[in-house]
Amino acid sequence: MSKLALVSVKLTLTVVVTWFVLAAVGLSVEDIRALDLGGWTLRWLPLIGSAVVLAGGFAISGVLWGKLVHELGGPELGRRDAVRIYMVANLGRYVPGKIWQIAGLAALARSRGIPASIATAAAVLGQLIALCSATLLGMGVFFGANEEWRLYGWIGLVVTLLLCLAISVPATLDRIVGTLFRLARKDPPGRRFGRSTFGVRWISFYVLNWGVYATAFWLLYLGLQPFEPFLRIGPAFAAAYVMGYIVLFAPAGGGVREGALVLFLSPVADPAVGAAVAVLARLWTTVVEVVPAAAFWAHEQRRGG
Q1: Contact 108/91 with Cβ under 8 angstroms?
Q2: 14-18, 121-125, 128-132, 184-188: segment of lowest average pLDDT
Q3: pTM assigned to the model
Q4: For residues 68 and 97, what is the distance between their CA atoms, to the nearest angstrom?
Q5: Read out DSSP for 94-144?
Q6: How far is residue 197's CA from residue 101's CA, in Å, rounded to a whole number?
């Protein structure tokens, strides 16, 4: 299959999945056309705060990656270097496929003396833990929305907790880390995690990290719509991110994440309003992520020159 045909198939699948999700909440083109954005009252304090908190969340993710590199046996990175490398590599998530972000991270890490195998292992392991943590936090949407969803929430929470506990078992972590290094054709780090609290500790870190992201989205929502409690809004962002990430053919979860966000916001927001918020949230995350990353990339280019 040619590259053009493959891209066409991926885009078609993305549109189909998004359409099914939006159809589930009854959103139609007529609903979108009838939406009057001119009637919205913008609240600038929470809007500005949301951008600041979101940028802080990205920075924390970068610092966590740097700490994970060190814990896997790599050199200790300064916070600024870790954030720069992580943010620039994040530009790869806007390319179809989930490998470009990790590949970019490995390439940039080499310029700081970090073996590509360790940088890659830290990225993959960190993403695995982050997805588990985002899912754990995202389960809150089933408890803050309405009573009809709570049974699904309890089922999902139990399953997610079991998965988190499974990857927190030291012996399981040893196997995961060992597998990542073997795939990279490198020897695993000398330290092992059989007698540590590695898993529980790092899941806790990433749950807090995702708490920052969810808080940022909650502030964005409050800047656009009337007040709603955090539990009804924040976890929806985490849950929608997970939905967008697991759909591998959608670049940066495009379309799928927005459709899922409309679904998760449907108990508190009209589908058309939810769709508008979802689109604005995509622009918000893209700008807050790409602008600093582009600045860091320019810095890397000057540094390399």
Answers
A1: no
A2: 14-18
A3: 0.80
A4: 24
A5: GSSSSHHHHHHHHHHHHTTT--HHHHHHHHHHHHHHHHHHHHHHHTTHHHH
A6: 28
Name the H helices within the chain: 3-24, 29-34, 44-71, 79-89, 99-110, 116-138, 141-144, 150-168, 170-183, 198-224, 230-246, 256-265, 271-304
- Distance from C-alpha of 231 to C-alpha of 145, rounded to nearest angstrom: 8
Of the two residues 178 and 42, the one the predictor is more confident about is 42
Distance in angstroms (rounded) separating the CA atoms of residues 108 and 297:
10
Six token digits for residue 108: 């940039």
Structure tokens at 56: 């802080």
Which range has highest mean pLDDT (56-70, 80-94, 164-178, 258-272)? 56-70
Q: What is the DSSP letter of 90?
A: G
* Pairwise CA distance, residues 241 & 281, whole Å: 11
User: Over the Cα atoms of the chain, what is R_g?
Assistant: 20
pLDDT digits (tens, 9 = 90+) for 167-182: 777 777 777 767 766 6
Asked whether the beta carbons of 129 and 206 are under 8 A apart, the reply is: yes
